[in-house]
Amino acid sequence: MSRHIRLFPVQILAIGFGLIILIGSFMLSSPLCNKSGESIPFINGLFTSTSATCVTGLAVYDTYTQFNFLGQFIIILLIQIGGLGFMGMAMTFSFLIGSKITIFQRSLLMESIGTLHIGGVVKTIRRMLFGTLFFEGLGALIISFKFIPKVGFWQGLWYGIFHSVSSFCNAGFDLLGRFDPGSSLTRFSDDPVLLITVMTLIATGGIGFIVWGDIVDHKFHFRKYALHSKIMLCFTFLMILLGAVAFYFIEGPNSFGQMPTDEKILNSFFASVSPRTAGFASVDYADMSTAGRFLTMFLMFVGAGPGSTGGGIKLTTFATLLLSMYSYAKHYQDLSIFRRRLPAEAQRKAFSSIASYVMAVLLCTFCLLVANPAITAESCLFESLSAMGTVGLTMGITSDLGTFSKLCLIILMYCGRLGSIAVAMAIARRKIIPKISYPEEKITIG
Hints:
The protein has a two-stranded antiparallel ribbon. The termini are far apart. It is globular. The chain has 18 helices and 2 strands. The protein is mainly α.
């Protein structure tokens, strides 16, 4: 008797992302998408497609100099699909044509966009659609005005659209290789309008769609927000502010040394916002101090919010870790914040997520070191954290890596976008419930 294979929502998401990446790989590898009119190695097409779909930004080629308009369009389309989640994009299309969304599709959307309740999925999709159009459209308009005088109307308009989508989706891809290949935003480190616009888009996309809903529903009545939204907004503010202050004092005498005070402040905030999974750079990270790069790696590790366009271990996971440490030190039984108690499952999930994340990064770093003995451990760790955190920042080693190293980073980007726990759940098809419970025995910890 044949048995039907039943796929769970997280498995469908994992397979769906994989199929989109493969389709993008074949398209980007073809001569039709490259300015040279010749195909590129499939591994490089796969790397670029994975980086775009997983909204990472690591690139073996400069996007402007390598890909023609069709290639650039495919990259930004992959970024949009990856940023909003392919199920979110599919359900948005269903919503626009008036098709009904089934219970199973709603459960898929819960996994894809990180909603807390199945009943709020359709409302979240509607807000996600209109919010994305509003923020990306406004960002495209502002950025276009900056580039139209430099590159002409149509090119400037395309630059506005491309960089607005890439910023909002926390992708980090850019077309600024026209001015200096691989330079990202370093030529515009003194442009407050451009940097503030990009920062705002990054932060807006990074707080997550759940927070959007609370802000729309309750306006500025902070007490009415869900606990998730309160944690996200407070910790986002603190991370950006403390990161900016740290960068100002660390990099003031170093990579920001030749800048006036107002420009130092601007670039300090940009350096604090961008590593939380966007991947744009206003200064060359190879020129940063070791302390500045270490702080960048920490910010890449923490990342953005759940159900957002960003990656990392997620800010709520980091908050749960800090609360757990504080509660243990004070001998409290519960994890409490804003007069609410977190469920015990949240603590277990947070520690499992962090452990999986750290193990994956360390394993990839080790593989990169073995395959590239000439590259420093710092550069390999930086690259691994950037891939797993779907950030896209680099110390300039990406294009020098071989096939094995690229495959390691591809797997890491894929796991980083889906989440290490989600990947493990996708591999394990069934939840195994043990039939017996063994006797308890203590061990020494710490």
